[in-house]
Amino acid sequence: MCVIWLVVCAIFLIGRFSNGVPIDTNIQSILPNQTLSPAVKAAMDRSGEVASNRVVFLVSSKEGDTLNVEASNALSKKLIEAGLFKNDQADNEELGRWIFANRNELLCEPTENFTAETAQFIRKTALASVYGVGGPVTGDLLKADPFLLTIRLANCLSNGVASLPANQSMLTGKLLEPAYAMDTQSKIQAVVSAWEEEWLPQGIELARVGAVFHAAYGAKSAKTEMTFIGGMGLIGVAMLFWSVFGRVLNVIAVASLIALSCTSGLAATLMFYAEIHMLVLVFAAMLVGVVADYAVHAMATGVGNDWPSEMDRRRHLLRPMSVSMLTTAAGFAGLFFLGVPLFQQLAVLAIVGVFTAWALVLFIFLPLDKTPASNEGALRIRWMRTLSFATNFLPISMQSAVAAAVFIIIGGIGFLVAQPLDDVRRFQPQKSELVEQEKSISNIIGSTSSQVFLVSKGETLDETKQNEEVYLEEIVDQNVFALTRFDPSQKLRLANSAILQEKLFSPYEAAHRAQLGAMEPDEALDVSVKRPSWFSDLHVEDEGKHYLIARLSSAEGLSNSEKNVIVDTASEYSQAFASYRALSGRSLIIAVCVALVFVFIVYRKPFALSIVLAPAAAMLCGIYLPAIWGQQITFFSMAGAMVLFGVSVDYSAFMWEAGRKQEAWTKASVLVGAVTTMLSMGLLALSETLPVRSFGITVAVGVICALIFSTFPYYLARKDALNAD
Amino acid sequence: MFSLIASSIVFMAVQSASETIDTCSEPLSVAQEAGTRTFTQERSLVGIEQSLVSSGRVEVSEDVIRWIVSDPIEISTVISSGGMTQSIEGGPAQPIGAAGASNPLLSESGLIKLLKGDLTNVEASFEVNELANEDGWGVSLIPKANEMAQHVSGIEVYGCTKIDTIKVNQSNGDTIKVSFSEG
Questions:
Q1: Is the pTM of this model over 0.80?
Q2: Is the pLDDT assigned to residue A165 strictly greater than 90?
Q3: CATH of the domain spanning B2-182
Q4: B121: phi > 0 → left, psi -120 to 50 → alpha, else beta; which?
């Protein structure tokens, strides 16, 4: 039955994955803010994608040297040849033509700020370009645009890029492949490194900005950590199993059980849901701990009980494992009450996964875990050594009570001083060198990595433009990047055109043309113009409504209006994580309550509630005790607590049964299970990445507490048994 | 008598010229020299009949060139390694971009170096050919790099002990001629 189910699951998953990975990796899916319409979310998605694919390089040579131009061209060429990059230069030609064609309807400043002095200044600046040194003026341009408005607009709309000193070149563009794909990251790193080898020895310096570089650093850092932590964990678990059971192959058996349980849980979830969110998989790490525990208990029933028959071993396991499995499952079933798809998906995955692990261990693993043909005695000695250690380590004594009280008191103090942390900007470690480079580029062209957007909406594109213009008029932001700066509404075009005519052309044009000998051409300069392709990145049309997205440098002091919404992406995600942290807390409370009811129904003894209360206390200590040394509480602390609930219910259930039956072997198997969890998940506490570290610390601290607290169900069960006798 | 006077004048002129030519520097060894000179810039743009003439003085120091136009409009342009600023009619100095240092005509053509009066090492970026010049030497500079050639087809430089005239022939047919004199 179990095998058939697993085969069905495997076939189902192959079918589902062959039509594309049904895992929702879009972080926006977790955003709980219902005030944002799907179109605004789509706009955010688009703007986020555009922003994440932007890259900027600042190539500098020594003062007085202009090697930077050649170096910058070489870098651009290499990136383009690698098929990775589209240089903005390609768009600049298009944009230049657009600005030229629209020069008489665009302004650098708000219309009302265009004064007679501005007009005078424009005239003089044009003269300075002609009579000064090396101004980029041609006869055709001068005749068509005698005040050189095109050059003025190009300067002010380029956010200062054009004002770079001669020894610096800015290379800007967009990636043609997704920034968050590891393949893109390694390709761009390879190209840039090859370029650096050639140019850095010649005195060239390079600063770079782009999500791709942070992502590459994050991926590299994660890879190093996973190699180190994962490697250490794997070696640790292998050594543990070898020293306790004398069989390294058991590691493979446990790994297979974990893989099969996850397959089953994932398949069941995908049978109910079209997609599963990646954060569910984070919580699903709980399965690893639970399955490992079940397997360890199963192994211990053999060596710990003089290799009894398969039937006897199953009898040893059936009740505590069933209670543990059903308590965990009942706890997770409580998540349905939250009414949040993410937690409902988790509930399905956890319940089916835990049930599969239970069935696999009892009905597949046990028959396969035969009595060793030889060295039975040696294996027994190893086990006895572990048992002796476990008995000393987990004494049912006053010492344990004192230790538990100390942990609870410290956890209580931690609860009082604990601070939450939901700011996603602090989740990922950033390379200081990249942060410095970003600052140097931001000093020139303003913030390049701002995730604050103004989303304006309207019934028509022109109305939407007007809404954006009205909002932007009211704010002071030097680094606004908005469509209406390049392509204003008809209303603003008319106003700009009128003010240029009134203040500049009427008073000065005739004299200015005469001075330069630049008479109006008989025919207008033939310049083919098309709308720059990137304009569409700032415009979304959905269900007949139009949305414009403008990038702002900060959301400070800005508020929403009827037609305009400020979207601070990082804040949105931070709020989402805060909301989910709270929901996770509630789900843990629900899980504990449901488990309490379930355990009471099963045992009908108040003391048996310790099977749930001990893990609940361990969860609280895992979350709050680390606050003593300043560890902040995150959503991932809650995920760690969920893992703790799964594994520590298991410890308590086994210890309860052990106390009831006066068995000794359980203590050793609980200890081995706990060390396995510590090695597989607790070591994540060493990570540099805050969510991973947060998860690992909660598990590490919580597992120690769960071990100590699990002596109470043992003590109470023994007392209950003695009273009954 | 007039012919005698005339011949003596011619003789003196030739003698003077000969002496000058003898004392001219090798063109490619003419280096930047601090000091002030006056200049006249004549800009001819295709499609504009009249030449756009400006004049003023240029002050060259070790790190900075001040290009000061006094006629027909007061413009003070300061070119340094830190960038380029411009002040118009006594107004505040403002950084200039596409119209200045980032303009390939200046940043990629080597024109800034020539305006400083420096011809040393010019062969690194240009193919150098001699040009006839009765009053000294003349060299034609043809850009080697394609990027530069897009903007400048060639530069003619004339001088003797210093650079006296620079004529930039732009690829679109426009020319900029700058003549320097002492004073």
A1: no
A2: no
A3: 2.50.20.10
A4: left
